[in-house]
């Protein structure tokens, strides 16, 4: 049985049989990202969860200040979702084309994306225990599961 180092494997193209599975994992991540972004957008537009979250942190703020913060948090999270979708598409394209850079791109994107999602889920600031409401933070972490599957698929032996 031939063994290869991680460095050597990083520069080799992904095998055709692994490409299809990794591509599906990446598409699942894209789907989860779109779904979580839509959930946040719909929830922000139709419920008072975010308004109440802000009001709990800043009970003396005017409604204008609360609305401005609500808009800022919503735009930030929607922008994060759009950038995440672009990253999924880019990684899926690299994997599907069998590009040698796919392993590194998927791995770095997974690390950065999951790290940022963890920050979103746990970041506190000023009067906020968490800046992003817990349901939004949890939903934002779900795509990382698909990213972990993709990373595992492309780095396992024989991939």
Explain what you see:
It is a single chain. Helices cover 77% and strands 0% of the residues. The protein contains seven helices and no strands. α5 runs antiparallel to α7.
What topology emerges from the helices and strands here?
Layout: H1 6-11, H2 16-46, H3 49-57, H4 63-97, H5 102-122, H6 134-141, H7 143-155
Helix pairs in contact: 2-4, 2-7, 3-4, 4-5, 5-6, 5-7
Please tag this protein with its features.
mainly alpha; 7 helices; 159 residues
Compact overview of the structure:
With 159 residues, the chain is mainly alpha-helical. It contains 7 helices and no strands.
**Count of spatially separate domains:** 1
Largest β sheet strand count, sense and barrel closure: none
Low-confidence regions: none
* Category by helix and strand content: mainly alpha
Radius of gyration: 19 Å
Percent helix among the residues? over 70%
Number of strands: 0
β-sheet strand percentage:
under 5%
| Tally of alpha and pi helices | 7
Distance between the termini: 14 Å
For the residues shown, what is the average pLDDT? 94
Order of helices and strands: HHHHHHH
> What is the global morphology?
elongated
């Amino acid at each position: 049985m031939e063994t290869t180092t991680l460095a050597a494997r990083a520069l080799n193209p992904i095998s055709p049989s692994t490409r299809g599975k990794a591509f599906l994992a990446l598409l699942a991540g894209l789907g989860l990202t779109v779904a979580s972004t839509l959930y946040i957008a719909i929830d922000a537009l139709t419920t008072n969860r975010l308004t109440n979250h802000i009001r709990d942190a800043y009970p003396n703020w005017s409604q204008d200040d609360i609305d401005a913060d609500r808009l800022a948090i919503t735009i930030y999270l929607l922008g994060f979702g759009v950038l995440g979708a672009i990253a999924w598409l880019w990684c899926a394209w690299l994997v599907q084309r069998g590009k040698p850079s796919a392993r590194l791109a998927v791995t770095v994107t997974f690390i950065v994306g999951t790290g940022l999602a963890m920050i979103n889920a746990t970041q506190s600031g000023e009067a906020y225990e968490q800046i992003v409401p817990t349901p939004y933070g949890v939903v934002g972490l779900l795509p990382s599961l698909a990213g972990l599957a993709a990373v595992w698929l492309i780095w396992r032996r024989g991939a």
